[in-house]
Predict the 3D structure of the following.
Amino acid sequence: MASAAVNVAEFDGSVTSFVPFPPGLRVTEISAQPANAIERAVTRPKLSRLRAGAQAVLASSHGEPIVSHMPRVSLMVAWQKRFWGRKSRHLAFTFNFTDLPQGSRYRKAWAPLEDVTRFIVFSAFERELYSAHFGLPIERFERLLWAQTTPVVAPTNAFATPGNYVAAVGGEGRDHVTLMRAAAMLPHIPFLVVCRPHNRLPEIPANVTVHTNLDAPTSWRITQDAACSIVPLKSAETCCGHITIVGSELVGTPVVATRSAATVEYTEDVAQCEPGDAQGLAALIDHAFRSSATLRAETQARIPAKLAKYDRDAWQRSIADFLAGG
């Protein structure tokens, strides 16, 4: 097994706390977050990503394997490997797209992915989807379940009375149009939506309150106190929602979602309807709100089983296998 590795990501905070590297491994940690005013100003191309990719490749001067996170950071590492002529093994972890790159030039722009040793995706559907889209052997794509511990929850909820509302937290791949249509059919139920500033919401019904850019503990507190957690995805092929579904169940909140091929492995205990079906979504939300006590007790009883299912031991085994040359 390698004695050292390079880890590069665009996350806030420590990356090594997210990825379970084997004990004793010497890890060079590199952040692709903007480090100064110039990097914050230059975003096309994203200068901080360019710098981090170069740092990662140069830090692997003795052949240390590189672990990168999210597709565009992984792509930049692959480009930099070609530029510097390096052959280090490369693991593209958290390889997940809200929207796949399209257009006549995308294959050339993403061609360096050919040099990636292994990709980690979080559903069997994504394994096939990305292999076909990028023209890469499916054997290079390893499917692992999204894994996490119980989310850290804020001590108080300053936004709503626990149990007296439903929550829709998350901004990636969400169908807020259908969600607002469903909310308009349920004027007796308060909705609390937490999304991104770039999410474009249609006309907002009077029973809906919207917040943006809340921190994770606050968002999880809102989810924990809700009668149900709603995950309305844009289509039956949207590759998002895993974190919200898993985290909601781990804090004991029942989940209502629209179906997607990318979330099949996560929804055995989730009430679902077809994407775009506002009436079907409203019916599921109304039932979850009226049956909140029963559904919450059932969800909380399943927490030990969910913690076992989403344990990060599988991630650690996969990374150890990669570092050993597998």
